[in-house]
# Entry
Amino acid sequence: MRGKLYGIGVGVGNPNQLTLKAINTLKKLDVVVVPEAKKDEGSTAYSIVKDYLKEGVEVIFMEFPMLKNPNDRIESRKTNTQLIEKILNSGKDIGFLTIGDPMTYSTYIYILENIDSKVRVETIAGISSFADISSRLNIPLVIGDESLKIVSLNSKVDIKKEIETADNIVFMKISRDFERLKLALIETGNINNVVLVENAGKEKQKIFYEIEKLEQKDIHYFSTMILKKGGMEQWKRSIS
# Structure
């Protein structure tokens, strides 16, 4: 019988944030696939789950390189999907690990795009970086009838327009264009309505409220920003 594919969200860095469903699934897997942007780069996701894996489980570090050519990226993802299908066809159950939530900007989605429609798939939710940040800092994402928007920063995004059309915004992948983001926050009068968190949930986590002092070179790849147009000052409480 063909194996089953599990997409498993492992949270943002703390093993205590794994759900019971994720833990119970990890314990029974035959194979664990760990995505990495560069070969032998290492994996936070694997370090989170390793103590829950059964003895003898096969661990595959699967490279998803950030190739400049979009067509090359697509072909690379198809090749990885074919390898996963080959393992599933041998009857083994596979867990594909993903930091945060599997359905939020994750590599796992690229596998779902290409997997055989007859493959049995189960996705297990994880805690995303912005959910972790809002709870850790006691900052509500939305209140009452407020709106929330998630924006992945890139050169095509009209940042000022995004700010104008939502009450609360989560900015992700901000290391791509931080200076333009900072300028938009200043011009819209929101420079004091944000919090920026680097390496959320990890021991080396850093929290910044005064981002006007930061420069592009200061922004870590794993950084997330929350904007509350209603004001951030009243929510500056102790970290939970």
User: Anything to note?
Assistant: Helices lie at 20-26, 44-49, 70-89, 108-114, 129-136, 159-164, 178-187. The beta strands are 4-9, 31-36, 58-63, 94-98, 120-124, 148-152, 168-172, 194-198, 206-208, 223-228. The longest strand covers residues 4-9.
